[in-house]
Input
Amino acid sequence: MNTLIHHPNLFNAYVSLDGALWWNDQQIVKEAKMTLENTNYKRKTLFMALANRMEKGMDTLTVQKDNTEGTELIRSNLKFIKDVFKNKTNQLRFQHKYYENDDHSSVRLIGEYDALRFIFDYYKLKIYNSELNDPNFNLDSLLVRHYNNVSEQIGYLIKPGESQVNGLGYYMLSLKQFNRAEALFKLNIANYPETANCYDSLGDFYLAKGDKLKAIESFKKALTLKLIPETKEKLAKLLK
Output
């Protein structure tokens, strides 16, 4: 939390797991009050996990009126959270969670998990069965759009995984949806032009379509990049 307030450019995501914001008479909470108001946190993410350190019968509302030492930690965190919500225009991407059934020690594991899910919520690719099986749905375009967004969010280039695209290509091939299969195999070649397996898969596509000349061409290209026994065997059979 100290790093977020005083050195916000060091990282693009920050996680506080029941942080000791009570320290030195809530020094960081007081320092944050003005900083949150005057700093632009565009593309910065903060996740805060709060554990249950309260007496029986207390909740996150009633505890704010308490002044005992035992509730100082959660009260400091709640005060910080209030200040974050007062400054929504600073563009800080923020989420907090209160874990009623976890204490200061156990909250770290579940809090870290939820923090990573929140920070990287844009990363997971979702393909619905209706999209997967629709012959008119462009899977290759979905992949390109998704990973362009991932690259923009994360700050460097992330390509669709070779095996991921390959698997989708072969699935389309099994459905005899040749246009979709071709688009996926060619997307892999565009992203991984030096990978023999991509050309081998394209060769399988042409073989399934009955285009033996293009299959031979693809298998030969694959073998210039890497000696794959299966590819060599398929090529030899075709040449005979």
